[in-house]
Specification:
Elements (H helix, E strand, L loop, with lengths): L5 E6 L2 E3 L6 E3 L4 E7 L9 E9 L5 E8 L12 E8 L10 E4 L5 E11 L4 E10 L8 E7 L10 E2 L1 H4 L9 E3 L2 E2 L1 E2 L5 E7 L3 E7 L7 E7 L4
Parallel strand pairs: 9-14
Antiparallel strand pairs: 1-4, 2-3, 5-6, 6-7, 7-8, 9-10, 10-11, 11-12, 13-16, 15-16, 16-17, 17-18
Length: 222
């Protein structure tokens, strides 16, 4: 079984020189912790596409694809789940792996990314979805949310129609990995890619109750 490792880099000591902009890292300043490795979960081929965010209570939440039958991407694997681990002590220790999104065999969720609304203390976790048995090569864009620092999550919401166009239905499109931002005005912003149409922003002005596409693409996009 192929073991794909995702390493969390924790910086214990950084000496910064503000005048020159140089940053020096001590030899013993980096502690390597392997948070996700295939042998940790029976039957898993690999973990891929990590994302991390700080919850309102200070907990660190790391989410990632759990790729079961193979390490293939969304259109090549009929069993990809979104899982997470949590640290309540700034990365010193981590919880066991917890499942956030797990569809029936034949349907996969991939590429988690997160965004924190600091006004409502809500964490949004976005992912891309495909039903390989019934709609292979059709990408849907979904989100779950948590109001208790990632301890529980809502049911998935399909926001494809809100942040893409009808004519994009068969296009290769996906919400990007990593995380989104919140502006000073409270607007939530994130990015998605349509390989043919470019990189787009999408956002929310009502704290995630609804979402909209900003149709000013950057090309090329990947």
């Amino acid at each position: 079984m192929k073991a794909t490792l995702v390493t969390c880099y924790l910086l214990a000591s950084i000496v910064a020189h503000s005048q020159t902009g140089d940053i020096q890292i001590k030899d013993d300043a980096i502690d390597y912790q392997n948070l996700f490795s295939a042998p940790m979960r029976e039957g898993v081929s690999c973990f891929r596409i990590p994302a991390i965010i700080t919850a309102p209570n200070g907990d660190l939440i790391a989410a990632i694809d759990e790729r079961v039958p193979s390490c293939g991407d969304l259109k090549w694997s009929n069993d990809i789940n979104i899982v997470m681990r949590r640290s309540e002590d700034n990365g010193e220790s981590w919880s066991e792996i917890e499942t956030v999104v797990d569809y029936p065999l034949g349907q996969s969720a991939s590429d988690p990314s997160m965004l924190l609304d600091e006004v409502t203390n809500t964490i949004f976790l976005f992912f891309n979805f495909m039903d390989l048995d019934n709609e292979k090569d059709i990408y849907y864009l979904k989100v779950v949310s948590s109001r208790d620092n990632g301890k529980s999550w809502s049911s998935p919401q399909d926001i494809t129609s809100q942040i893409s166009k009808l004519e994009w239905h068969k296009d290769f499109k996906f919400i990007t990995s990593g995380r989104g931002i919140q502006t000073r005005s409270g607007k939530l912003l994130h990015t998605l890619v349509n390989l043919e149409k470019g990189l787009h922003l999408f956002g929310s002005d009502d704290h995630g109750e609804s979402w909209f596409l900003i149709d000013t693409p950057i090309k090329p996009a990947n």
